Amino acid sequence: MEVDTIAEKTTPLLKIMVLNAQDLFLFMEKHDQTSLENLTEIKWQLMSSSLFMNKSKDKCIALAKTIKDADADIVMMTEVGGHESLANFAKFVLNDEYTSLSLPSNSDRGIDLGYLVKKKLPYTLALHSHIDYVLPFPAKRFSRDVLRLDLIRDEKTEMILLLVHIKSKLDMRKADFEGRTRRALEVKGLLQIYQKLLVHQVPILVGGDFNGHAGEKDTEEEFKQIYQDTDLKDIAFLAKIPEDERFSYVYFTRGGNRFVQQIDYLFISEKFAHLIEPGECYFPRYKNPSGIPLPIPKRMDQKNTLPSDHYPFLASLRL
């Protein structure tokens, strides 16, 4: 027993964060090497000649601080404004400590998917897109993508990550109530990709913004197939995080009532559940510049001051 305990303490943790960065557009083509500390918000915006406004300097710094405080090794990020934005975030805000990886998606809003990977990790990285993966009508293609990242060491794949951003419930054309048909087809396609990768016999992590409740309790209809067709489990559930702490999104009704919900997930096969370090799995909460945790918003104006409208999730695995 003592040997096992020693082995657990010496086995390194791999910390993986899921984060919706909410419109992370960051273009710095006019940057003149002025340090971040000396850039006002106005000058920060003037660094870009894009039609998109840069995400505010303070919010970018707060996102970076959240990543650093959690000591995340890999960040699975949604709502990235293209590879240039992610590369600029890694270089200018994260002190060039992470490799940025992103590919164009099918998004009609320019919000793509991307990974940040600590440069010191001992892996070769291989990125794969599924933007042309055929889904049945009326979906045809993923709304964004399923972006796959392989972690390779000594020419052997040791882990696979699948990052997704399922379509929201908005139905602007009033043709598919809450987008339920398309959403179910996107989840089905995601699970098909996952099942085809099982031949590698390595841990496969499936995560991102699911835009709905995909947990085991009170599962929304489009996500029930996760539990019916695969052995995937929500890491937050497996880590026994208390239900009242298990949320990544705060929303308000038109009447001003507040609700919290988990819509950002990281799934793993139940047979790899032993890799999870439960005490190091949690939903990081944002902090002010002094390092004091910001309260969970009680009003919409408070929510709008957060660096993202989603909270991240951090999972730690012993490899």
Per CATH, the architecture is: 4-Layer Sandwich
Task: Please identify the oligomeric state.
Answer: single chain
Portion in helices: 10-25%
Structural class: alpha+beta
State the end-to-end distance.
19 Å
Q: What order do the SSEs take from the amino end to the carboxyl end, as H and E?
A: HEHHEHEEEEEHEHEHEEEHE
Characterize the largest beta sheet: strand count, sense, and whether it forms a barrel: 6 strands, mixed
Number of strands: 13
Low-confidence spans: pLDDT under 50, at least 5 residues? 1-7
Specify the CATH homologous superfamily. Endonuclease/exonuclease/phosphatase
The CATH class turns out to be Alpha Beta
Beta fraction: 25-35%
CATH topology: Deoxyribonuclease I, Chain A
Structural shape: globular
Rounded mean pLDDT score: 94
Radius of gyration: 19 Å
Instruction: Give the count of structural domains.
Output: 1
Structure commentary:
- Helices cover 23% and strands 26% of the residues.
- By secondary structure, it is α+β, with helices and mostly antiparallel strands.
- The protein has a single domain (2-318), classed as Deoxyribonuclease I, Chain A (4-Layer Sandwich).
- The chain has a six-stranded mixed beta sheet. A five-stranded mixed beta sheet has the order 3-4-2-1-13, covered by helices on one side. A two-stranded antiparallel sheet has the order 10-11.
- β6 and β7 form a beta hairpin.
- 39% of the residues are buried.
- Residues 1-7 have low confidence and may be disordered.
